[in-house]
Every structure is written in C-alpha cells, then in structure tokens.
Amino acid sequence: MSEHVICQVCKTETSPADLAANLKVCPSCGYHFRMEPKERIAYLADPDTFEEFCKNMKSLNPIDMDGYEEKLSEAEKKSNLSDAVITGTCSIEKTRVVLALMSFSFMGGSMGSVVGEKISRAIMKGVEKKMPVIIYATSGGARMQEGIFSLMQMAKTASAAAELDRAGIPLFLVLCDPTTGGVTASFAMLGDITIAEPGALIGFAGPRVIEGTIKQTLPEGFQRAEFQQEKGFVDLIVPRREQRALFVKLLRAHTNGGSL
Amino acid sequence: MSDSKTVQNRIDELMKLASEAGVDISAELKKINEKIEESSSSAKAWQRVELARHPDRPRALDIIGNICDEFIELHGDRYFGDDPALIGGIGFIDGIPVTIIGNQKGRNLRETMTRNGGMANPEGYRKALRLAKQAEKFHRPVITLIDTQGAYPGLGAEERGIGEAIAMNLREFSQLRTPVICIVIGEGGSGGALGIGVGDKVYMLENAVYSVISPEGYASILLRDSSQAKNAAAMMKITAEDVLEMKVCNGIIKEPKGGAHLDPAESSRRIKELIVNDLRDLMPRNPAVLVRYRNQKIRKFGHFTESAGE
Questions:
Q1: What is the ipTM of this complex?
Q2: Which of A152, A60, A68 is nearest to B222 (CA)?
Q3: B307 touches chain A (CB under 8 A)
Q4: B89: part of which helix (H) or strand (E)?
Q5: Which residues pair with B90 in a beta bridge?
C-alpha cells in the first residue's frame, strides 16, 4: 500500500485508482489534485470525439538559450507531451467545441511560442467554425527561456481572443491550480465566463514575489479561487465533477440549441 | 579594459610556449576566445541596462514636454483612482492632436515614491485603456512611452486584478481603430511594459532594453543566483539591436553620444521627428486595414516547427 497518494491538505491516503475514479479530487476533503489534459478530455468530451490540432508542433530555441533544448526533451520525456498545451475539437453532449488544455507538468505550464501559437490557433478555429472555445488554464507564466518571444505570446493570444470577442463567439475559461504570470495577464483573464477550480492559486505576481515586495507574509487564502471570486475576477467556482454538467448548460445558453 | 589586456598577454605567452613545445592548442584557444566574447557581450548588455536605468535619463513627462507644443494631462480610471506611475493626456505634436500615455518614473527620491518607481497598479492600465478608447473615439493617434521594470507586484494590485487589467489592454489595444505608436524609452519590463506596448509600430531608444523579466529576476529564478544578472542580461537578448534583429521592434532611435541623459533635447527631437514621419504615413490609412495589419504582425511572433500538418 506504499503507492497510495497522500492529500497535501488533509493527509488522507487514497489509492491511485480510487483517486482517478474520483477525478483526482481527494475523497475526504475535496482537494483538487493537478490533472493532465488527457484525463480531462476523458471526463469532458463525448467518447472518441476529440480531434487534436497541431500534434507535431514543437518548440525551437529562438534566442539560443543555453540548456533549453535539454530542458525541453526532459520535459517531453517526463510528461509525455510535446509542449504545455493540447488543443483540438470535441463534442460535449453533441455540441462541437474547441478545447484547449494546459499541463503544469510540462515546464510548469509555461507559455512559449508553441503554447502561444496553439492557443491562438485554437481560438481562431472557434472564429472560423463558429464554435465556442473552452480553455483549461494552468501555468507558472511566461517561458523565460524564449526571452521576448515568450512575452509576445501574451499579445498574440489576446489578439486572437479579441477576434473571437468581436465575432460574438463565447470563450470559457477554467482556471486551475496554479494560473499565474503572463497567462493570467493574457487569455486566461479574457473569458466571457471565468470558472475556477476550488482552491486554485490565481494571480499575476507569484506569492513569493509579492511577499518580497511588501515585506509581509500574505494573508491565508490570498490569490486563491475563493479570494478571486470575492474580488470579482471569477464568475463561479466549480468542483471538477460538476464541470461537465455546467458546460452542457452554458453551451445550450450560447448556441441557441445547437446552432451558434 | 585592463582585464582583457592581461588575458590577451597570457594567451600570447601560452601560444609561444605551445609552439615551442610543438603542441596544438587551437581548440582550447577557440574556447577561451568564445568566453572572452561572451563576457564582453554581457558587459555591453549590462551597460545598456545601466543607461536605461540612469537616474538622469529623460522620463516620459520630460519627453512629452519637449515634443509637444502643449500637453493636457488627464487623470483617473473612473473606477478606483488615479495612478501617478502611468500618466496620460492630450498633446499637440507639430499641431497634430495626439493621446500620449507613458510610464512615469521619478527623478528624485520623493518623486520616485510618489510615482512608485514607474510600476503601475491596475488603475494605471485602466486609465491607459480609457484614454486610448477616447483617442479612438475622437480619431486621435495614440503614442505610448514605455519605461517600467514591470507592473507593481503588490497586494492591492492583485486584489484589484492587475492580470485582468493588462490582459484587457492587450486585447483592446490590438483592436484600436486609430494609429498606435509605442516607444520603449528606458526599461521595457514584462507584462507591465506590454500593457501599453501593443501598437502598429514599436520603437526602442538605442539604450533602452525590452525583456520578459528583469535580468535580476531571470538570474534568481532560472540561474538560481541573483549575482548573475549581468550574464542574464546578455543571455536574454534585451538590447535594442537584439530586439530589432528578432523583429519584435520596427526600429531604433539613435541617442546622442553617451546616452539620452547627456542631451535630452536632442533625444526628444529625434523622437519627435520619427513620430511626425510615422503619423504622416499611418493617419491616412483605413482604420480597418490598420487593425488587420497590426494583428497579422502580432500573430507572427514566435518560433516553432511543425513536421506534419494538423
């Protein structure tokens, strides 16, 4: 029983199978463990409806940063992903949507050229096909190894979000633990409806940076999903198990019963 | 540089010894030369960082004073307050009415405190957006002067949604139906700079720097050694030449010899000349075309490969 997963909040031990069956939510306290894109697709999408975009897109080393290629291949091996986001289309209760899911396990979900490009293309697919776009965000921020190009991905994804906005097609964001930095300051905060997972850390500056600036310890719960809802930046906090049902309702509200 | 001279003398000695002994040390020499080059490029990059942060460097309001016939400063975001770290208003440049927005650092200690060192809070970005939309409404071009280490990483900034404020500016500036010219006049740091940095044309002053994070931040996070800031500055490719080469800016505005602070009037004259030229070119353009080109340009940023199609 040494393989049991220990909840970092209540210390309850759960077997990996039980945890997976419970959508990686601690059965005892409701703590939401980090979840991988493929696990989310299995839960959200109608079976076998997910069609992936840009499967072979990979990062280059645009500013010749020492050690970046090694970092990338390490991350690939560790995460079994080609970069920190998977994008595609799928059906949710027969409504076609564009779905983009980030992974924190690939270099902390950082946004470099590949994440920026895949997110932008996914959003533009929504414009082109008139499909609602759902993005699950989780990220430590910009992929600093790509220098100024990582910063420019913020402008790029926001520009795509602007087109979706002007086209009158909904953008739904789900902010997962953690969503910070350049991702927060771009597409993650541009949803028509912003959902957060319980307890998720959501902010621009990281807690340690803020503590270093103000020379104080941050109050309990600072930048958590509940705090962000109280401050007015999150529409609703939805436990994982209820997210699919919520999307079914939201899609119905935004697609006039199937045709946007 | 006496250091490099000593190194060169040592290399000459080594070469002499090696040829006397009949040993080929060219591979080692190549490595050493690369190291020397690296350290000189880090010195060069750091010199730019120091010039960009020079206490006497002309600030946004100095430049505005020099390039405008008149300037009317406007205050407040209409939600929360006025941010002295991010200023804006209506100016006349050669008689042309424009909206100018800029990060304002202080000149002395007291002003630096009032201006929060040029690090804006959400209300600064929201004021910038309000003024930009106002410019669009009244067909005025927008000029932004970027000079900040970044947005303020404070408690209040987070409570009032600094991430949302910057995100909204990125989205809305991309769609402004009026010309937008952005000039990095000192430090262009992170999302805080980009928050007023989306436009049709982006320029940098010769000694300005533009980066995703400060060299100190890069050093302490990725190199795990904050004393490595000088090296980080070179590694990150943050000088005006670097950014131009990467096609993230459209051009460089030459500074007077020794830096803009030695001749602020001349620096401003060059900035003004460029703005007036660009306005002549941009103002007659159809706003829809302007927006389309602006977004096409933004979407191209990035480097990746795709071995197969979708």
A1: 0.96
A2: A68
A3: yes
A4: strand B86-93
A5: B72, B99
Interface of A with B in 207-226 (CB under 8 A): 209-210, 213-214, 216, 218, 222-223
Determine contact: B46 vs chain A, CB below 8 A: no
**Rounded to a whole number, what is the distance in Å from the CA of A16 to chain B's nearest CA?**
33
Nearest CA in chain B to A118: B304
Question: Mutate which of B169, B202, B310 to disrupt the A interface (most A C-beta within 10 Å)?
Answer: B310
Nearest to A155 among B161, B168, B170 (CB): B170
Vertex A98: Cα angle to A95 and A101 (nearest 5): 125
**SS3 at position B164:** helix
Segment 172-201 of chain B within 8 Å of chain A by CB: 172, 174-175, 190-191, 194-195, 197-198
Q: Rg of chain A's alpha carbons, rounded to an integer?
A: 18
Decide if A59 touches B, using CB distance below 8 A: yes
- CATH assignment at residue B191: 3.90.226.10
Would you give the DSSP letter of residue A133?
E
Q: Could you say which of A145, A154, A190 has the minimum Cβ distance to residue B194?
A: A154
The per-residue pLDDT for range A172-222, each reduced to its tens digit, is: 999 999 999 999 999 999 999 999 999 999 999 999 889 888 898 999 999
Please report, to the nearest 10 degrees, the dihedral formed by the alpha carbons of residues A249, A239, B153, B133 taken in order: 0
Beta strands in chain A (DSSP E): 5-6, 13-14, 51-52, 57-59, 85-92, 95-102, 133-139, 171-179, 193-196, 236-237
Residue B285 lies in a domain: yes
Q: Give A47-94 pLDDT, tens digit per residue.
A: 999 999 999 999 999 999 999 999 999 999 999 999 999 999 999 999
B194 within domain boundaries: yes
Does A178 sit behind a cis peptide bond, omega within 30 degrees of 0 on the bond before it? yes
**Segments forming the whole domain that contains residue B248:** 54-299
Number of domains in chain B: 1
Q: In terms of pTM, does the model score above 0.95?
A: no
**Residue A119: closest CA among A61, A175, A166, A187:** A187
- Are residues B147 and B101 in contact, defined by beta-carbon separation less than 8 angstroms? no
Superfamily of domain A34-254: 2-enoyl-CoA Hydratase; Chain A, domain 1 (3.90.226.10)
Please, are residues A142 and B216 in contact by the beta-carbon 8 Å criterion?
A: no
Pairs across A and B, CB distance < 8 A:
193
Is A5 an 8 Å CB contact of chain B?
no
- Numbered ranges of CATH 3.90.226.10 in chain A: 34-254
Asked whether B268 and B205 are in contact (CB, 8 A), the reply is: no
